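Annex B. Sample input.
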Amino acid sequence: MNNFVPNEDNVRFLGRAVFIDGLLRLAYSGSGAEFAFEGTSLSIVVRGDDNIEKEDSSNLPRIAVFVNGERVVDEVLSKPETTLEVCSSAELRECTVSVVKLSETGNSTCAIKSIAVSECGNIIPTNKKAHSIEFIGDSITCGYGVDTDRDHHFSTGTEDCTKTYAGITAQLLDCDCSIVAKSCHGVITASTVDGTKQNWGIMPQYYECFGSGAGCINGIYLESIKWDFDKHRNDVVVINLGTNDYTYTGNNPERLDEYRLGYVDFLIRLRELNPDSKIICTVGMMGDELYKTIECAADEYTAKTGDMNVACYRFDVQDSADGYGGDYHPSVATHEKAAKKFAEFIKSVMGW
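Annex B, continued. Sample output.
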């Protein structure tokens, strides 16, 4: 067998993936690796975080392997190390292989350790797509509950970012996709049930980190790794945050102002980190109550900075006729409908 280390010489990194100490670490949804494979057999060794055997079953990494776009492996990792058997054939194969972390960062860190191919085989990185989009969001963007129904609660095993509006939009536009999303998070607060502000779930605090949450591999925590924005440029940056903020703001004028000002501050920082990206501000799939406030924030940001490279988009609120995912999150049907419209909007504003 030929064993390959998953570094940039051998694979193309997908989303926010970083190579440290011989491991390609994956945290946020959609992170992974892609490569062109030639050979008769292929297997991939993946490992979980330092405490994977102590994790609750609802907080384990879910990972998939796609061969020429077809899902051939879909597994929830529960052991420190797992070997994913991708293919074994008597005849020589040539194909594109994508390894994608389906679940979100906060509960399910993992890493690709090695890639083994037949003695006559080889792997090389695929080429980048012509365009790339980054999606900043919450549970909707993570794909919370897309593989279950409304009566089931949170589990990383029922998350699948490839079935979300983000993953599908990127597929429709043939773009590379980076996802920076975490359930319950917002611009100024996490989701709250009693109206009190929750400072533990503020996405702008984590946006500049490789990942966030309790995940730790070989003693290295996600939030200790800073993301290198100079090396990773996106044509479009989408902000889909506000659903959780609304549990705090409601229609309270003072709290709406707090959200608006926090949104403006986040836009300013996003532009510093993404100087050439088109920024699209959006909300709506689980409620569009904050959309007008988002428009006001975008207008205020433009007036303050002169930056015209910002657009707003309102998603349609989910329709019960399309069903629901876990805890009434969007179903696959809802995500698909949203992605088709959103892809057309992006094409129109980008001229693609």
